[in-house]
Amino acid sequence: MNRRLRSSVFATLALLAVVVAAAPAAAQREAVECGEYQGVVCQGYFTDETGVVDDPQRIEDAISRIVGHYGNPIAIVVVQNSRGADPADFAADLANNWGVGDPVAENGILVLVSLDERRTEVVNQTGVSIPSDAIAGSARSFFSAGDFEGGLLAIVGSIEQGLAGTLVEESGADRFPIGAIFFFGIVGIFICSVVRILFGAKRERHKEEHNEREELIDADLADLEPSGADLPRYADYSVPVPMVTDVSTSSGVTELWRVASGHPTDPDVMRSLWSLGLLEVVDRARLVAETREPLDLRASEERALLENAVQEAADEALGAGLDDAAFESKRRNLNRLIASLRPHRVAAARRRTGDALVAELISSPIGDVSVTSFGLAVADASPAFDGNAPLSESVAEYRAASVEAEVKIDRLERLYEHLPESTARPAVAAALADLDDNTDRAIERYESARASLGAEAAGLTADGLDPAAIAALLLMNRNERNTKEFLDGYRRHRDRGFDPAEAVEFALAGLMTDGAVDRVRAVTRRLDLPISITAALIERRDDGPEVYEYLRDELAAYTSSESARTIAGVLAMSLEPTQAMRRWLSAREALHQFGLIGSYADVAAAFGASDPRGPREFAVAYAAQRRALSDSSIDDADRFAPELAHAGTSGQTDTWSGSPISDGISSFDPFTFFYHHWVITRGVSGSYGWEPIHADASWSKDRGSWWGGGGGFGSSGGSSWGGSSWSGGSFGGFSGGGGFSSSGGGSW
């Protein structure tokens, strides 16, 4: 934060502190029974489930004063995490469930601070207009420095300024006290700016020149650092791989773990692992000899003298009062010293790296060995291998899965460069990655589908829907030419009184007439299922509801009732009942071998059950896809690993038959349908949503494991797909508002 901005923030906090100090002393903070959502219990205007604030009453009093003055219900909440949901969605759901705001005035505000995600989210009802991004940003420097109380007070002050700005337009009575302060503040800033322009231009030029010189000197000094090419690698000292016959089955991968733990036992299996690139044998003697510091550099005191000389020369080059010629002369001298010092730095770095590599080598019957990075990946994926198959076949299977995963990631990264940052980006990118082998063509087709929504896109956005995700769904299911039909159906359902979440599901399912809608609604209520699942079941097979009920009852013995409903719907569309259970249990067991358990794992197993390659093959592909995601530059798409790993809809073809998906809104491919429901119910509670699945982050807890980091599920299509309005009673100063949506926020 620059000095001017920091001074402005501190001035705001100082003003807030004076006003708070002048207010009557508040009573001791007491817990207020005003609601609970996802384990977060409302404690009043300020709720801190983490205990990160030492004096919560101070924050409570500051908010209370603003609520008393302006009448806007305000809640500020600090949570450890957003329960696996997108923080913006979680903030809106929290406000809706607690009932923050007035249901008539719709003037409620909620600020969520999520520590694990390092996010501040500001959500509000439609009856209040505040600069949400600025409010979230006011605390960024405080939170980054660990000063949460200071950051929260900055947020309170920013909310007050935002509300004051609103009241200036609405009420002349309050205009002078706040308006005058801002007016004179702006005048003062203007005067200071004029003074700076008139009298500080020369100083600014000198400062800019100094900064430019600093950048040049920093670039010169960076040449001292050894590069990767300067440092030794095992590959530089590898012993040539012998021609051997693979004598091991896939169970031989366990020898990799023995090697990694320093207890190799079987030289024949190790030679097989070596020939397959899972191990490398290293010439230890040559590695030691070639990474020793040369005697002339080691015995000389030249390095210490050069280190001091370089620092002195850098300081001299940045000295005040130097003209351009003098600076360049000093800089040339610095670069001569850098060229003399660099061999010492490189030699020392090679020695340190060589020592570390030697220390990690493992003595074995076939020589000094190390497990390769590919070997580690194979070992981690080995629980999904066929233990009776030759090891060479299993390694080839994983290598092919890795190549495919890398291709998907390459597409995903290119799609990310094109798609604007939004909650829908991970879901849309995951969908488009399977659309076309040519990424540019996939983008072109997507943009065409998005453009086909035309002027109606603004109306969809106003309804809280995401046109980007709708366009992707239409495109995936070969409905890009049916946009008009979809929009006509959507408008018809909205006119009939359905909320946006229901109307968009009916329209995407191709349910256009009142009779078709009423029929599906009746089955939906009986089965307690989302509209899209029910419509797809009825359209896919005559006995779809009966098959669904059978599978739901069978699954109840293995997973939660919420997960069982969703999984049963997917399996009933994709497979015969007995086959469905057998394949689902097989995929589930394979994922459990990776330590992946819980609702998320059970749904991922449904992807495995419906994968035409088979559950075991899906698990291998999933392992490769998770590793590729963890190694990529993308940090918010990890939860889409099952979609990316699934050999599902590609080029708008049916998952099972490989034939083109039938043209027409009412047609559903199982994989497309699965994606449809996964995205469309994001953030929706009750029987419509996948709350237990979205909230389950069991797969991401072991962040040091083979599937890498990237906590949480990331953003996934957005709560905009159907946030229902909750209506609670009056509690804790909140009067049951509802209708909150994401307004603004920021990372810190």
| Uncertain parts | 1-32, 166-176, 680-692, 701-733
Average pLDDT reading = 78
* Backbone shape: globular
Structural class: mainly alpha
Let me know the largest β-sheet.
Answer: 5 strands, mixed
Tally of separate domains: 3
Quick one: how many beta strands? 10
| Distance linking N and C termini | 12 Å
How much helicity do the residues have? 55-70%
Describe the structure.
With 748 residues, the protein is mainly α. The protein folds into three domains: 3-196 and 733-747, Diaminopimelate Epimerase, Chain A, domain 1 (Roll); 217-384, no CATH class; 405-708, no CATH class. The strands form three sheets. A five-stranded mixed beta sheet has the order 3-4-5-6-10. Strands 7-9-8 form a three-stranded antiparallel beta sheet. Helix 1 (3-22) packs across helix 6 (148-170). The two termini are 12 Å apart. Residues 1-32, 166-176, 680-692 and 701-733 have low confidence and may be disordered.
